[in-house]
Specification:
Layout lengths: L1 E3 L4 E6 L4 E7 L8 E7 L2 E9 L6 E6 L6 E7 L9 E11 L5 E7 L5
Antiparallel strand pairs: 1-2, 2-3, 4-5, 5-6, 5-8, 6-7, 8-9
């Protein structure tokens, strides 16, 4: 299981005994915590609040099942107003399609989906 916390850690936890297998800060410079986490296979998406014009509010990570390390794969900012100083990404979910492909959806405070 992968979970996010208000202190900004992405933690991999073994459900059978509750052991923490790894803990990784999603963004060491974050000014806000994690709002939502979505997992599909070894891919983890994190929704948070971007603070400032150079921060991000959608992060993608890969989990290595051999050692449970969590590695940043990509990040972006979902922002309608390019001058907004803070933009919340409230939620992220995966949406598997019948063709085998997987999409994801996010929703932001300024109305982006």
């Amino acid at each position: 299981m992968v979970t996010g916390s208000e202190d900004g850690n992405l933690s991999v936890i073994r459900v059978s005994d509750g052991a923490f297998l790894s803990a990784t800060p999603y963004n060491p410079a974050a000014q806000r915590g994690i709002n939502s986490v979505a997992v599909a296979g070894a891919t983890v998406l994190v929704a948070n609040c971007a603070v400032g014009l150079s921060d991000f509010n959608l992060w993608s990570y890969a989990v290595d099942p051999t050692n449970w390390s969590v590695t940043l794969a990509d990040k972006t900012i979902l922002r309608v107003d390019p001058n907004a100083r803070q933009v919340f990404n409230f939620d992220v979910v995966f949406a598997p399609l019948g063709s085998g492909a997987t999409w994801f959806f996010c929703s932001t405070e300024d109305g982006a989906l």
